[in-house]
Amino acid sequence: MASAVRAGPRLRRAAEGPELAALPRGLRDELQAALGSEGSVVPFRLLRSLHAALRDRDPPARGAGAAAGTPALPCPQNPELVARLERIKARLANEEYRRMTRCDHCQPWSLDSGQVCLRAPCRACCIPQS
């Protein structure tokens, strides 16, 4: 099983630039030593340490990954999509209400004429609402 990975150009650019300047000195020195070694092999242990240090330094500001106790920033919303979502929610609520209040003794007859009642007509499905 692999215990190290060869450093790519992205890791090299990050190590040379200001992106990793805020990390602890020991981690930066260890990364520079790994990048300077033969084949530029970086151990996974070092990568996990770098990832943890970066995650602790810059916690995510929004979404499911936001740190506990920090307020999540609202995402910008498209008004057209919000209106569409409201229409879909209303349609689903109406369908659920119709399903809950439908006549239980009516059977589907055909696609064109809707339902046919097998007993005395009931107001829920058999008597047309005007």
UniProtKB/TrEMBL annotation:
GO terms under cellular component: endoplasmic reticulum membrane
Protein name: Uncharacterized protein
Record key words, sorted: Endoplasmic reticulum, Membrane, Transmembrane, Transmembrane helix
Top-level division of the source organism's lineage: Eukaryota
Subcellular location(s) per record: Endoplasmic reticulum membrane
KW Endoplasmic reticulum (keyword) present: yes
Predominant location: endoplasmic reticulum
Membrane topology according to the record: Multi-pass membrane protein
GO biological process annotation, one example: vacuolar proton-transporting V-type ATPase complex assembly
Lineage, uppermost ranks: Eukaryota, Metazoa, Chordata, Craniata, Vertebrata
Keyword flag Transmembrane: yes
